[in-house]
Fold each of these.
Amino acid sequence: MVKVQLSLFIHRGRRWMKVDFTPSHGVGEYIKKYPGIRWSKTHCCYCIPYSKRGLHEMFTYLRKRSYYVDYSAIKSAGPTPSLRYKEKRKPKWERLEKNSKSVYREYKAFLEGQRLSPSTVEVYTNFIVEFLLFIGDKPLVKVNNMLIQRFVERLVSDKNYSISSHRQLISAIKHFGERFTLSGIEVTLLKRPKRYKRLPIVLSRQEIISLLRSTANLKHRTALALLYSAGLRISELLNLKNADIDLDRRQIRIEKGKGRKDRYVLMAESVVPLLHNYLITYNPVEYLIEGADGRAYSAGSVRNFLRKACKKAGIKKRVTPHTLRHSFATHLIENGVNMRHVQELLGHSKPETTMIYTHIAKKDLLQIRSPLDDAVLHGLGPHKNPAKLSLSGGFDG
């Protein structure tokens, strides 16, 4: 019987599966035909990149010839043997010179002292690390607006930043100018680019129902139903705990939402049976939408199953978890809910933020008939025939 042994080795920080076999007639030729296999001069063996699926496919391929396959070395190696060998990438700030590192630490402490959120501190400090690397050993007192403008132009161009990232970059530099005395800089002259006033994408009520019906997994359907029915941000959904759900009062408590504000949002009656079913089935310990390890579910996982559900429902629009929040607000306004109440439910600090939905939910404007429809309806042709004209060549769709 031909014996083939499979084992692992690390090459350039990557796991490879080594294929050893007893020399026999036709064995080598058969193994060489396996898709993606290659010969390693360094290790003197046939090999392929390792994955669980790759192991299964290789095993199946070899068993077609009734070869005896020994992969005990892979089982004993554990699930992630390469992690011990992977070199951790050093943070970019560690590449700074000694003086620049001191500036970086002072700036970070300044931002934290301003009580900015951890994510904002991380974004701003990353920008300033890029700036300190850009100026090199040049003293801060010699930095001027022209140098900063060159830095901004280069970074925005090289990184292909969006307008929002560009605005964050300018904000980071303005904070930097507040902390350090930069005699050559006029912070007020640093202008942020104007925001692109993009109208939110909104799903219709029919599309919302189709989306939920297309989501077979109970946990996934519960998550999407909560995002829409309560108008939640994805971070608010993932931070929800069992104690935040008040089934008796039909309320959901949002703790430390955006802007460090607590608020209560409504719980739809149609969601109550779904929540009961979910809680009995999954019995989450702490977080309402719980991950496999008992921690909070990840945002990436939500986006992933939402994308699949949209595809299954035949929705062609570009949909994100925030689209469900946009849809919630728009549908409330179309139902005649007071703007102030919508603002409170969404947790907006300024009414101007909520006003964006009035551009989508223009109920009266949507009822205005297009002059083309009037023209077609009244048959404005050569003989002014009042019969309805067809613009589709006889196809009424």
Amino acid sequence: MTMKEAFRELSHKFHGKGPGKTKQEKRQRKYQDELKTKRMKSSDTPLMSAEKMREAQARSKPPYLVLSGNAKS
């Protein structure tokens, strides 16, 4: 929890009023995104493309992997 979040929580308790519905939803979304990034491997992309390439290489067993696509020069 950041200093700002801690102060905000303290303020809500002191004044006896909670945060609004949209702020609660926003905080929940932020928390879920944070969990998702923690679960994701640090060496991989959000689409897990590095993991897919490793699996493809393990199936075909070559020491290289041919990449195809539209590359702009």
